[in-house]
Amino acid sequence: MGLPIWTPNIILLKLAAQETLSGKIKRLATQFFLKHIAYGAHSPLYRNNGTQSVKPTNKDSSALDQILSAFNIGINHIIKFPITLDCLNIKCKIHLHSFLFQDKSLPKTTIESLFEDTIRTHFSNFFLIATDASKSQQITSIAGTSSANSFAYRLQHLNSIFSAEALALCQALDELPNDEDNILLTDSLSVLQALANLSIKSHKIILRLAPKIARYKRKVSSKHCPPLDTWACRYQMERKSRHSV
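Structure for RNase H type-1 domain-containing protein, as requested:
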């Protein structure tokens, strides 16, 4: 290029219309964070109740109106930024060790009997929803059932059993609840513990699940059922058959 051998690399890159390594790292980092803010758990596209979380001053508001009018758009055309921590205050009772049947060291028949007694005594007016997930060497799947409906889906195998259990709860909240108070049954203690200790640093799937629970106006309870796949779902199917007769 006709330049001295001691010419700094930054000048060589500039002349070759190439970006520096530090500039590329900053650009990719910015792109990464903007993508996750735009499409992640706290995206205003998915979580927006229509209320302003930031109130500009009169001076800033006037300047903003002038800028928007130059582009022929109004303030109502802008997606408002959500209050990102609103999902951390979910009104959901999480029962980890509240009842006797949640002791998995008990015999299976004892757990079944205690479970039915607990539902009959404390949750007779609740709408029961049971979810489960499984992961084998080839297949990862989720399922959910209630007295009115059920679902079963296969997931991408790269999902962990933790993610699958949380996704089962997400799908159940989308498909199965009704207008009554709902109770979610799951055998995933780790998912319920993650919900009980919710923070901004929680797993992405937990931050996706929490707003779904927070949106419900009716009461929602989550309960840990140790051997759920063997008897709680069967209990739900028996309830379904009794209702359909």
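Confidence is low (pLDDT under 50) at residues 228-245.
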